[in-house]
Design brief:
Length: 324
Amino acid sequence: MKYKQLTLKERYHISTLLKRGWKQKEIAQSIGVHPSTICREIRRNRDEISQEYSYDFAHSTSKHRQQCKVKYTVITSKVKTYIKSKLKEDWSPEQIAGRMKKDKGFTVSHETIYRYIYYNKSRGGRLYKYLRHKNKKYHNRSNSYQRRGIIIDRVSIDKRPKIVEKKKRIGDFEIDTVIGRHHIGALVTVVDRKSKYAIIKNVPSKKAEEVTKALIEMLYPLRKVTETITSDNGKEFAYHKQVSETLDTSFYFAHPYSSWERGLNEHTNGLIRQYLPKKTDFTQISKEEITTIQDKLNHRPRKILNYRTPYEVFFTEVAKKLVA
């Protein structure tokens, strides 16, 4: 794997995971680069005084180093209008840049869009409010695993077919839960590894009975294309055998403290938090609101899908699979 220049988004990812206590090798796996890239990035771009790594300081330091090579793109009024309209639809700068070329026949880089957003912020603008993380920090959740107990007859991810890692077929799902305010109410989230297509359902509690019922309801219509399910070690998945038998599929559990093994699902939950931040009372969220969020995620173009939408990719593949 060759060294590549890191983006502002990747540097933000590195910064937050370092604060959570992740090792450099784990961070490299999470964002898809060689460990030496992370090591070099931290060594070259950390604050020499505090010796801490900060994504904004690192990015400005790196850009200053390359200043003689960088060409700053002038954003026209037409481009500004397009950027603003898509930010308001909750698209990321990468999604905007990628889809702009398809929609308009011209584009600017996502880095140029980030610079425009931060310039707008420096002038009192609020475009940065549409960025997903809004500079919020992550919290270390590793201690929560210590209180989760043991799940009977769990099958390790080590026994999962190797084809799942390649993300070449639909029907390999990652699942998780998102918890509401005061641990009352929860969302069950299901994401297809290849297409990134997400299904979300609101449940009254995180109890295994509720989560099991929700999972079966969510995936039963897709049982003919469901290949595998992968979850973390939460006790809400204690009835995994019931899910496997009803859907006629295989259920696997990731290793403890290894959220990168379900990185897509973790990322999707982060996108959901853009709409339902922590301390949201899930008992006040309607089914229609959940459907709206699900539709927003599934109809957004994704860089990894060549700026097609998860909806387009998933149901195209479903049709092919059912015909075959």
